[in-house]
Amino acid sequence: MSESGAIGVIAVTERGRTAADRLQAAWPDRVRTFTGDRGGEALRSAFAECGAVVAFLAVGAAVRALAPALGDKHTDPPVVCVDEGLQHAVAVLGGHHGGNTLAGDVADVLGCSPVVTTASDAAAASPLDSYGADLGFAVADTAPLAPAGAALLSGRPVRLEHDRVWPLPPLPPNAAADTPPESAAALLRVTDRAAPPAGGEPVPTVTYRPPSLVVGVGSARGAAAEEVGELVDTALAEAGLAPQSVHALATVDAKADEEGILRAARERGWPVRILPAAELAEVEVPNPSDVVRAEIGTPSVAEAAALSAAGRDGRAAELVVAKRKSANATAAVARLHPRGRLALVGLGPGARDLAAPRALAELHRASVVVGLDQYLDQVRDLLRPGTRVVSSGLGQEEERARTAVAEAQEGAAVALIGSGDAGVYAMASPALDFAGDDIDVVGVPGITAAVAAAHRLGAPLGHDHAYISLSNLHTPWEAIENRVRAAAEGDFTVCFYNPRSLRRDWQLPEALDILAEHRPPETPVGYVRNAARDDEYAVVTTLQEMLDGGSADVDMYTVVLVGSSASRTVAGRFVTPRGYTWRAAAHPE
Question: An example of a Gene Ontology BP annotation on this entry (predicted)?
């Protein structure tokens, strides 16, 4: 019996067993270690019993051991081999369905280098066999994947067809919807429509089935699964719809235990959605029934269940097959409309290794990336071929936000990027100001400039603190002044963003004057310019020294932190104590 979530780890040498222990410590609930002198037998056991395998064996030895057990590239578990010197983690099998990712994860734990040889990953292109997998896409027939992939990666013209726009990752520029059919070397098609007859396509054609359909079903008590199933199959076939695109069968709660419905769904691999009659009664349908209303409490089961399940989370849905009847059952089919996707991505303070892995993944995921020109320059090497970049300069924040939302409303997968965290003095709030409920929004946390600067200075944010922007371009100075005064009176450590520009050189001294009314002159102050970048510059000083002209080199690329009355300098580091009770006992006054 395969444990799909388990990672089988094969170790036959002392060094391999030590490394296996490190993986076990990193993933305690996932690793199953297979040891012994016969590595081939252990490898075959792990391959049969686990969802993925990491083998501390030579690639050649692993291939020879597994050769008799290999089945299908789309179903065999991923296998990663690590050499005896712990230098490389090689994705040997299943690269596109977890092997490449697993090689990277193993490399992160062991401190070695991942080795990925799949062609699309080597070219940084979206792999065709997992294209749209995170959206639930299924490949109708895997046979054309290899020739279509070869055409795509070789730069030959590839035609892209789709019934609706889904928020998919980018494809290389040679794949386009406007490629003439007669010049296309391959065809990629996204549709829930039934495939044309075999041999009807002149070029390799990969058909992706999106999870866009919901079948609604009602039945009399005791209706046979065969009758329900035949009605559903006929409804789909006569409408020219692909069963692979059905992502659920839906019915009313009164039928939750109806075995004919449940077995028909089970036989087709569809989950069942049970919906309350009161919810279905609110759904407008073309064919209501007073008889059904009197019996169940809703004028429609099949049509209403299909529309309600397809329209979850505020999604638009349409009825594509109206209610059909057999002697004891009814069926209808609804189609959901996909929504675009907007990822709000903070890149962190600047250093690549301080960007969240999820932020980098979103850049790979997006087909459109919108951002400030200087931030886009930092990440162009991470974008997949075919990604469309929309760049603008300083002062055009509203335009960037509107552009990103508009692109998502057109159905694209969009990443709106900025530095630090997208929600802290950045692009998340203006974008969400414009975004409605017609798009999906994903937020990716990032390390803020304040946090990066604080760690460079010591621990200035160890107790309550406030962030205040001193830019009065969008906020009146009177409001900023009131906030500074409130933070001063509340004895917060204060972090100032946007402290000074060429045209705004007076706000920081005024803010420091306000704080000085409530702080002793020796209060620690720290500032960091270009935190976590190559030209980072950090200073720990005092409030009095700042008032005496010590802030001359502060600019818009600088974060200024002013301590509370409890803050102090310890061994040259800026520290704001948390005020733990044990500290008073350990250091009595």
Answer: methylation
Q: What are phi and psi of 129, to 5 degrees?
A: -75, -15
Which CATH number fits the domain 213-336, given the four candidates 3.40.50.2000, 3.30.420.180, 3.40.30.10, 3.30.1360.70? 3.30.420.180
Pairing mode, strands 158-162 and 175-176: parallel
Query: Residue 32 to residues 39, 52, 62, 102, 112: CA-CA distances in angstroms?
Result: 15, 10, 18, 15, 21
Per-residue DSSP letter, 463: S
Extract the tokens encoding 400.
Answer: 């960037």
pLDDT value, residue 69:
87
Asked whether the predicted pLDDT for residue 338 surpasses 90, the reply is yes
Answer whether 109's CB lies under 8 Å from 18's CB: no
Over residues 213-223, mean pLDDT: 96
List, edge to edge, every strand of the sheet that includes 368-372. Answer: 388-392, 368-372, 413-418, 340-346, 439-444
3-state SS, one letter per residue, for 277-337: HHHHCCCCCCCCCHHHHHHHCCCCCHHHHHHHHHCHHHCCEEEEEEEEECCCEEEEEEEEC
For residues 8-16, give the mean pLDDT.
89
Half-sphere exposure for 113 (CA within 13 Å, toward CB): 5
* pTM score of the predicted model: 0.79
pLDDT digits (tens, 9 = 90+) for 73-126: 778 899 999 998 899 999 998 876 778 889 888 988 998 888 888 755 555 567
Q: Which residue has 């054309």 as its token pair? A: 144
pLDDT, one tens digit per residue, over 15-70 is: 888 999 999 999 988 899 887 667 788 899 889 999 999 999 999 999 999 988 88
Lowest-pLDDT range of 27-41, 199-213, 374-388: 27-41
Domain 340-447 superfamily per CATH: Tetrapyrrole methylase, N-terminal domain (3.40.1010.10)
* Count of CA atoms in the C-beta half-sphere (13 A) of 550: 17
User: Six-digit token pair at 247?
Assistant: 């992502």
CATH architecture of 3-117: 3-Layer(aba) Sandwich (3.40)
Longest CA–CA separation in the chain, Å:
91
Q: Residues 559-581, buried b or exposed e (16+ Cβ, 10 A)?
A: bbbbbbeebebeeeebbbeeeee
